[in-house]
Design brief:
alpha+beta; Butyryl-Coa Dehydrogenase, subunit A, domain 1; Butyryl-CoA Dehydrogenase, subunit A, domain 2; Butyryl-CoA Dehydrogenase, subunit A, domain 3; 4-stranded antiparallel β-sheet; 3-stranded mixed β-sheet; 13 helices; globular
């Protein structure tokens, strides 16, 4: 008997069991009306993460020696996808825990950081926000200007970080800082865990079109002190962050946005499909009108393609295979296509897809960030061409 087929079948069975568990949890604990309320109030209660930890999903990215279930990328992606079907903000809260916290610390943290933080990830007690971008720095991370200086057993940080989603509710900001002369660019960068409630930090909310529930912030740092122990990877990794930004954890993290996009597109297709069977015009249900049928058929086909691209990349990451090209392709294709799917579904619903009281208008607001978030589509195209050794001259 082919052991690979057996392993694949077992993975499929486990995935479907997890999917069923999450759907039953969401139907009970996060009904659609509650997800809509979180969006209106721009706040997801952090306690919901504790409830997710009781299901075991917060342990999916943590090694067993720290209380986790081992690195289960398939389970991680399934969880993100299912949570995003109900609330993208909830899915992102899970990412802050399991990916930004679990994956990064498990792969890159020092032994002390792993002992200190990973059990809390499993328990749903640790959330990490990203602090990579700055007002003048997006994709060009080697140009960050937020400065960090060693002063005895402390690190003193000054500067401004932008687009720090969830920073106000996080336990740490995973912050990229300039730890030496800027001329060295890639060689003088470090990653530091910075508590957002540290003295000298000011959080300024940035209003956004979508993903309401976890506000996005500017983070202003004025002589903020953190212990040397908060250098990600320990003191030996001071000035070595560039090597840490690209690696196995990055490929796994790149699946987060396309997983959210698939879940969001699934929710939009389900709503438009149901609406088309209930709405009547010209004496018949609109699902009988050819133009509507074509839109929905196209949406279902695109959605199926998104799932295939996402799961192809996820399986390679799960199996520890080289996957940088596939994860960039998943981010590019799924994010762009999900946006097209959701807009198409809004068109099926007409004015109702634009109105409050229907989830579709939230889906439209939320999906617009997908091609931008986590590395824009243009950046992914560059990555794919470069990784496949397309000549530049």
């Amino acid at each position: 008997m082919d052991t690979k087929v057996d392993q694949h079948t077992k993975t499929e069975d486990d995935t479907e069991m997890l999917r069923d568990l999450l759907r039953r949890f969401l139907d009970k604990e996060v009904p659609p009306a509650l997800a809509a309320q979180w969006d209106r109030e721009d706040q997801v209660p952090r306690d919901i993460l504790k409830e997710l930890s009781a299901l075991g999903v917060c342990s999916l990215t943590v090694p067993e020696e720290y209380g986790g279930m081992g690195r289960d990328v398939m389970g991680m992606v399934t969880t993100i996808q299912e949570l995003a079907r109900r609330s993208v903000a909830l899915a992102y809260m899970f990412i802050m825990n399991a990916c930004y916290g679990g994956l990064n610390i498990a792969d890159l943290g020092s032994p002390e950081q792993k002992r200190r933080l990973l059990p809390g990830v499993c328990e749903g007690n640790i959330m990490v926000s990203y602090g990579l971008s700055e007002p003048d720095v997006g994709a060009d991370l080697a140009s960050v200007s937020t400065r960090a200086e060693r002063r005895g057993d402390k690190i003193v940080i000054n500067g401004t970080k932008r687009w720090c989603t969830g920073a106000a509710v996080a336990d740490y900001i995973y912050m990229l800082v300039r730890s030496g002369e800027p001329e060295a660019r890639h060689k003088n960068l470090s990653l530091v865990l910075v508590p957002p409630n540290a003295a000298g930090i000011t959080l300024t909310p940035l209003g956004t079109m979508g993903i309401h529930g976890l506000p996005t912030n500017d983070v202003i740092l004025e002589n903020v002190e953190v212990p040397v122990d908060n250098i990600v990877g320990g003191e030996a990794m001071w000035n070595r962050a560039w090597l840490m930004l690209a690696g196995p954890s990055l490929d796994a993290e790149k699946l987060g946005v396309p997983a959210m996009a698939v879940g969001l597109a699934e929710a939009a297709v389900a709503e438009a499909w149901q609406y088309s069977t209930e709405r009547r015009q010209f004496g018949k249900r609109i699902c009988a009108i050819q133009s509507i049928r074509h839109k929905l058929a196209e949406a279902q086909t695109q959605l199926s393609a998104c799932r295939l691209v996402l799961w192809h990349a996820a399986r390679k990451v799960h199996a520890h295979e080289r996957s940088a090209v596939e994860t960039s392709m998943a981010k590019l294709f799924v994010a762009d296509t999900a946006r097209d799917i959701v807009v198409k579904c809004q068109e099926v619903m007409g004015a109702y897809g634009y109105a409050h009281g229907f989830a579709m208008e939230r889906y439209v607001r939320d999906v617009m960030i997908m091609p931008i978030w986590g590395g824009s589509s243009a950046i992914q195209k560059n990555n794919i061409a470069n990784l496949m050794w397309l000549p530049q001259e």
